[in-house]
Write a structure and sequence with these properties.
Elements (H helix, E strand, L loop, with lengths): L3 E3 L3 H7 L7 H17 L2 E4 L13 E2 L2 E2 L3 H13 L6 E3 H13 L4 H5 L5 H9 L9
Bound molecules: iron/sulfur cluster.
Iron/sulfur cluster (SF4) binds next to loops.
């Protein structure tokens, strides 16, 4: 199976996804990506740029995003987890680290407190109703 590019902050978004998104194509693709990551546990490459979830997003602009904030979220995740960009590791290893250190470590607002979706993540995180990403 080919290596999947994953934006580091998407290790957080995927834990809190409840079927909401920018449009129907985006949410369908994100659902498929999450199902694939959890069932196949592929090797992922941590990428500050467009990834498999961005592929169907109306905000994608080539290999980037129309907004600069996702890049800031990505770099903060890498900094907190102490991982370099382009590192390759199993999805389960990456998502567990993100969960343990950032979500359960109470550091979500440091990464993406300003995000338009953060209300969902804060509520689900507080009630421990987010989904474990690991298979
Ligand atoms: S908003 Fe930007 S970073 Fe987020 S999924 Fe869409 S293109 Fe990717």
């Amino acid at each position: 199976m080919p290596i999947c590019k994953i934006r580091p902050h998407h290790g957080l978004c995927t834990a809190f996804f409840i079927g909401k998104g920018y449009d129907s194509a985006f949410t369908a693709n994100m659902s498929e990506c999450i199902a694939m990551l959890r069932s196949l546990d592929p090797t992922v490459e941590l990428t500050v740029g467009s990834d498999i979830i961005c592929e169907k997003c109306p905000n994608r602009r080539g290999s980037g995003c129309r907004s600069m904030t996702p890049e800031q979220y990505d770099r903060k995740v890498l900094e907190i987890l102490g991982l370099p960009e382009h590192m390759k590791l199993k999805w389960s290893e990456f998502s567990e680290k993100a969960k343990d250190i950032i979500i359960d470590g109470g550091r979500l607002s440091e990464v993406c407190g300003e995000c338009q979706w953060s209300e969902i993540c804060i509520i689900l995180g507080a009630t421990a109703k987010y989904t474990k990403n690991a298979p």
